[in-house]
Write a structure and sequence with these properties.
globular; 409 residues; four-stranded antiparallel sheet; Hypothetical protein af1432; alpha+beta
């Protein structure tokens, strides 16, 4: 019997009967062979996303892809929203960013500590506590519903440590903000938030020396890392009270709209909309975070990449919604003005995304202002000398020695 198997799950002893592309496009001389060495697997992984194995002529697979996988459960409202743009819920900020900051700070500090404990417990073999997970999500959810800027501002400003933990918490917050912008009801926001918080839970099963490796991963190491999806799904499915949407977020957050993702190479709408959203969020936060093997990109640069990958890695309609949600220059971005002054984006103007509120830090000569001042580009169109005032460009984190943690509101 032939099975369609992702290359991440290939083992020595399997018989490869066919590929996901013509044999002539690969270096293999025989059309059908037994995998005998790790080099065989590495070569297959270099050229293919999946292969077909004959289980009558070689060993079976622990993981495989159905030839016609069933369509996973999706969110019908969001699918319609991407077509008609009609929101189910219209959220409005009930607090200013400054008013919400203290509660957002408490929620962030509690979340970081609690997620570390949750993941450490699972790493030690304990069951995942879904109530503890909900306890992490709820304060973040409440904060972002009251004000969509404060928590994201703090998240961008913080000095991140323990990438896996902070990445999970940041993904959760971004998911809530994204879902809020798209008009999801609170119950659905909670599902999306838990899914994004827990989708990388499988990393607890991956050796830390691989997760924390400073250099580029080898192909063998990358195959090991990709197995975190399967590990995470298993953990979630064994958790009492975990719903199908959350499991499917973990299962599909590395799938790509053009079918180039893993573990199942799902294409387009075969990926649940939550999974398509999670892919964008996960990629954006990874790019804007300092990791063992790469420096953080500016939010502006990360969004440019997301935009460039629309139609291939990501669904174009979702990319458009994410860009509108985050703004051209996301909250926390360091920017240079057309007059040479330097500032940090404090909050967005929903009707004029190119003209956010900015705290100015450096003057035209790149010297610190004696007193920092806040300007609203939606109301201020000229600089003091009467010239048009706009954002010239986004800058990389740390530009001009600016440490954003020093500039909390």
């Amino acid at each position: 019997m032939d099975l369609k198997v992702n290359v991440s799950y290939l083992k020595i002893g399997m018989y490869v009967s066919n590929l996901d592309r013509p044999w002539i496009d690969t270096p293999f001389l025989l059309e059908g062979f037994v995998i005998e060495t790790e080099d065989d697997i590495t070569t297959l992984a270099r050229h293919c996303t999946y292969v077909f194995i004959d289980t009558d002529r070689g060993i079976n697979a622990e993981e495989y892809i159905d030839d016609a996988p069933p369509r996973l459960k999706t969110n019908a409202y969001l699918e319609r929203f991407l077509q008609d743009n009609k929101k189910k819920v219209e959220y409005e900020d009930v607090k200013t960013t400054k008013e919400e900051l203290p509660d957002a700070q408490i929620a962030m500090e509690a979340a970081s500590n609690q997620v570390a404990h949750i993941m450490d417990d699972v790493k030690e073999g304990k069951n995942l506590n879904i109530e503890a997970v909900r306890g992490v999500v709820q304060p973040i959810l409440n904060s972002i519903i009251r004000n969509s800027e404060a928590y994201l501002w703090l998240s961008m400003m913080q000095k991140k440590s323990a990438y896996t933990y902070s990445h999970s918490v940041d993904n959760c917050a971004l998911a809530i903000a994204f879902g809020r912008y798209m008009g999801l009801p609170k119950k659905d926001l909670q599902t999306l938030a838990i899914g994004l918080l827990m989708m990388d839970m499988g990393n607890v099963k991956i050796p830390e020396q691989i997760l924390n490796k400073k250099g580029r991963l080898t192909e063998t190491e990358y195959r090991i890392v990709k197995k975190h999806v399967r590990h995470g799904v298993d953990i979630l499915r064994e958790t009492e009270g975990m719903n199908e949407d959350i499991v499917n977020i973990a299962l599909t957050h590395h799938e790509r709209f053009d079918g180039s993702g893993y573990p199942n190479a799902l294409l387009g709408a075969h990926i649940p909309v939550y999974g398509r959203m999670a892919a964008i969020i996960d990629c954006y936060d990874a790019m804007t975070s300092k990791r063992p093997f790469s420096a953080a990109k500016s939010p502006y640069a990360a969004l440019q990449n997301i935009y460039n990958w629309r139609g291939s890695a990501f669904q174009p309609e979702l990319v458009e919604q994410f860009l509108q949600c985050m703004g051209v220059y996301p909250t926390g971005s360091i920017v240079e003005m057309t007059n040479g002054e330097i500032g940090i984006v404090l909050s967005q103007n929903l009707t004029q995304r190119m003209r956010p509120k900015i705290m100015l830090l450096l003057d035209q000569d790149k010297a610190h202002f004696a007193e920092y001042k806040t300007i609203d580009l939606a109301k201020m169109f000229e600089d003091p000398e009467g010239y048009p005032l706009n954002i010239l460009r986004g800058l990389d984190p740390g530009a001009f020695g600016i440490d954003p943690t020093e500039y909390y509101l």
